[in-house]
Amino acid sequence: MAAEKKGRGSVLFTGYRSLGLYSNHIPHVVRYHKRHKEFYVVTAVGKSFLTYNVNKLGQVAVSNAVPDDISCLAADRMLVFVAHGNLLKAFAKNKEVVHTYRGHEAEIHLVLPFGDHVISVDTNNTIIIWDVESEEEYLQFNFEKRNFAVSAIMHPSTYLNKILLGSQQGTLQLWNVKSNKLLYTLKGWEAGVTVLQQAPAVDVVAVGLTSGKIIVHNIKFDETLMTFHQDWGPITALSFRTDGHPIMAAGSPIGHIGLWDLEEKKLMSQMRDAHSTAIAGLTFVHGEPLLITNAADNALRVWIFDGPGGQGRLLRFRMGHSAPSTFIRHHGLDGKQILSAGQDGTLHSFSTVHDRFSKSLGYETARQSDWDSIIACHQNLLRYLTSCGNFVVIGLSNGNVDVYNIQSGIHRGHYGKDTAHDGAVRGVAVDGLNQMTITAGSDQMIKFWKFKSRELIQTMNLSISPTAILLHRESAAHLNTVFTSVKCTIQSLIDCFLLDSAVVSLTMSPTGDFLATAHVDDLGIYLWSNKSLFSLISLRPLPSDYEPVVVMLPGANEETEGKFKIYNTSYIIVNGTSIHLRYISTEPTLLEEISTLSSHLDETWQHIQTLCNQSLCVLNYMKSALL
């Protein structure tokens, strides 16, 4: 009993995965896998990072979570470096932590892989160079923030053991990190440095400034080759095409991208509203006419430059809500689609199977009368869709209650002579037969109306103003169910667990396999699998003084530091069309930790079952042949 009072997590649900999270304000990182011969893009989402292939933008990996939100992201050929707080960690295989670097006393905001070393810069202006494998500090040096506050860092191509630092004061410094010597100081251009980007030409660097200027500078001779200026604010990101076209792309704080012709030294074209927020990162894929962009609007986009005029067109994208969800519901009988309405004014359909089936539902007035439409309401607008699906009843703050036809959008009438209530409407409901409409207002009145004739039937006075009303469908024969609660037959609490953020909406799939939740100040939708569908669960009543424990949201797996437990288990390895059954025995007892959920589709396991049956048939045939 004492253990039950303390809490044990959820009995019915276990975290499965998150939906609708693709990017935040941290710039993405592009990597090339030599063996796969494919480019991958890495984006940060809160406490973990996601890896996508560029060809299809399919998600290939989700990292284990770090304790705090990721503040910086970088990668080399083998590892992904993640900074959170004053710690720097190296991830292998896009998932588990293999190295941790401790030594900073402030939050890390810049990271640069540097061969066998990695360089990190914190907000206290301390630069530390680490040995990647040994995790030891190779070199550390500090700057006075009032003289040189480091705001950008890069390694100039072919400059052995050299790094170039940009500052908020506008000056640049070239350092030899092996000898710990300052080689040269560039005076700058009287504006803070925001971005440093290597050009395809050796010795040439593009410098983005807070003034909106872009300086293409030769650091060997300290000579400015060309200067551009954008009117959209500070430069947030820079990238050069490497497929034979002398084009430079520059990001802005308002989501526009400028494309500059380096031969003609002029603006070639603009990509306006590429994102709804500041461009966090943009990268031209090496040797290809592809531009990858991400921003804090929770969108990751790939643009292709294959048309005349040099204008990029959207090739593929992954996009979720740019503001938290307010309402979610499953759509369809198979439970594979979730409709989500957000504070950004958009309606999204998220697939629980694959991201390629997720989409943002747009709106258009053309041919709207040819099919049933969707009622989209603004924040705090009361509406009720009738059970027949043909009408919507909308309550307004001035006391009006209006009826509209869903398909045609025609106004069918209103309740009351002038207004239905003397104050704001607080609630609207319609019975299942479209015979009665019930409205509640801030005038402390509940009114019952005939739905078709809109004639007032009865009025009920309350002592206080109601905040909302709910029509209980299962007890629709009794009018008093609008105000009373229904008792459960069990009358006992069987499951309870805590989350680190409040739930604003939830929905259970029609098949009962997943529970989906949306949370306060969170852009994602989280899936919880119903454990009763794949294991036996004893639903015992919980004591009244039960203390639930906090459960992490799905997709926020704890970091493992590269250590794994192997228990007694048999597992299946599928390779092409062959199956290998293996058995590992390291402990005499089975433990609960061996159970885990698979992200594979049902067809995968059906295929495995088919292969198993084929193997059994072969074994039986061999046995009969021997006999």
Automatic annotation (TrEMBL):
Does Hydrolase count among this protein's keywords?
no
Its protein name is WDR36/Utp21 N-terminal domain-containing protein
SUPFAM superfamilies listed in its UniProt record: WD40 repeat-like (SSF50978)
Q: Identify the Gene3D superfamilies for this entry.
A: YVTN repeat-like/Quinoprotein amine dehydrogenase
Query: Which GO cellular component terms are attached?
Result: Pwp2p-containing subcomplex of 90S preribosome; small-subunit processome
WDR36/Utp21 N-terminal domain ranges (all copies)? 41-306
Organism per entry: Pyxicephalus adspersus (African bullfrog)
**InterPro entries xrefs:** WD40/YVTN_repeat-like_dom_sf, WD40_repeat_dom_sf, WD40_rpt, WDR36-Utp21_N
Gene Ontology BP, a term = rRNA processing
Q: What is the lineage of its organism?
A: Eukaryota, Metazoa, Chordata, Craniata, Vertebrata
Q: Where are the WD repeats?
A: 272-303, 418-459
* Coiled-coil regions, chain positions: none
What PANTHER family does the entry give?
WD REPEAT-CONTAINING PROTEIN 36
Task: Look up keyword Repeat and say if it applies.
Answer: yes
Which Pfam families does its entry note?
A: Beta-prop_WDR36-Utp21_1st, Beta-prop_WDR36-Utp21_2nd
Give the keywords, sorted. Answer: Repeat, WD repeat
